[in-house]
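pipeline: protein-struct stage 2 | run 1193 | NADH-ubiquinone oxidoreductase chain 5
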Amino acid sequence: MTHHAQAFSNIPLPELVAGTFTFLAVLSLLSPFFRRWVNFDENATFAVKTAFYLSLVPLLVLIIFGADTVISSPNPWLNTFYSSFTHWTTFDLYQIIFLPVALFVSGSILHFSPWHLHENPKMLMFPTHLLISLLIMISLISAGNLTPLFLSWEGISMMSLLLIGWYNTQNQASIATFMAANYNRIGDITLTVAFVWLIKSSVSSNLGHLFSHGVSTPIIISFVIGAVSKSTQFKSYPWMFSAKEGPTPVSALLHSTTMVMAGVFLLIRLHPLLSNNPLALTVCLCLGAFTSAFTAWSATTQSDIKKIIALSTPSQLGLMLVIIGINLPNLAFFLMCTHAFFKAMLFLCSGVVTRNLKDAEDIRHMGGLLKSLPVTSACMTLGSLALMGTPFLIAFYSKDTIIEAMTSSYINSAALLLTLAATSCSALYSLRLIYSTLLRWPRTTVPVHSFEEPQVVKTPLLQLALGAIVSGPLLFWMLFPNFPKEATLPEHLKWAALLITLISFFLGLLVAWRYHWSHPPEDDSPYKEFDPARMERPIHQKVLIIVLNSAWQIISYAIEHALWKWAGLYKLPSAQLRPIKVLYMTHKGLIQLHLFPFFLVLNQVCAALFMVL
């Protein structure tokens, strides 16, 4: 007893409080599974709220005391011949901050879901999937060891596929699940290879041990590829178009706190391995910049409201990858936390709009919703303004700091220009979304007076709107307490992010006034000349054809070689042995063998003559 008391006395107070209240939050999330299933959705909502309030205690302790150190609690649970697997939990700055953010956003989504899914026969399955996803995400962010990190990674993949295939009886939902599984398996395989490689070559799978001893470049690149695949970066984002087949609460959960965030969080957690590897940092920088610019430009050409919001996700994740590429993991984590608020709010707003418009998702058939859906319109406007980096909203603190950090560091100029282009395009498609959906006149056949906006919809939207306003400066102050108060750059660089956003904003207004984005394109419109599929054909299809043809040739040769080897060594000799024995009996050169067919034919001839006579 004295030994345990002494062990607990050596644990710093912030880490002890974080571990205790995280455990209580997990128990709260597990409690609905041990109650009656009659009111499971209400019990799940109450459990998430309770877990959120419990997670605020470590956050308050973090603000008061600070938590720069990391505490790990070893619990050996499996030994192998090669290495010792030891389960370690880490309660650090990232875990303490992201836990209440994930619980707050997930609780708002769960509060919104009964209204949106009340006619769905699988409505009670959504709280179950959400709670399990939250538990796995808590395990992921609290993991200080490769073993729970890998298991949580696979669990997130499994739950995300179940959510994407929500309407599993529909063909499009099944195709979306199949696409997501295929694209994510690429990254999962590379992560598995890196995990097994590390376990075989290292005496410990603890992250602290790996950070102190370092790993080889191929293993680090494998981790980067796995994270890029999960976070829908270049070559792995097309499945997001099909993922919108699920209901809106599913999309809000996937894009804000679970699946797509897991890859970026993995890189943030493993950043000490990347920080001294120039190749890995360059890959993150260039890949993130290109993905951010390409997907942001693609969003400006879409007319589906959910596709526009979905395409903004890989664009923002690309910015996070860019920040990791310039060795600023705290800034990437800050953008990840702020992104969860306005992205969940935008998806929930789109769910309110599409449900009132009888599932219509084309923004060219919307318009004039400002008076019909006032709270939804205000929250959608706030989320879009936050996304484009409007001053003093949540994304302004991250985007302005990103541009300032990039201009003051030695990086690739092309990456900087692509990041500025992505910032410009984010203002364009955000303004287009506001203009086409909320302004001008209604262009829908649904009667406007039939629109509904009950309190169960307003509450989660207003909660997320409050988070989008308040959490920005609060998180920035906690993550960057020593941020310089005075400007460290020339004025033209300091104002670069804001100037680009303003120029793009007014350019978007000019184009909206001139060409009326809310209308379908004319026959001679230049927008009909641009087809996003043209970018996918030379980039995706050509590469896939080359890779798949090579794989088909290799597999065909391997199967043919194995078939001939199997038939030639085993089946063919035994199958030919009996005919050879029969033929051998007829080739002995005996007179009896020659007389036998002669007398047989003679017997048949005599029998025929006897029958005739």
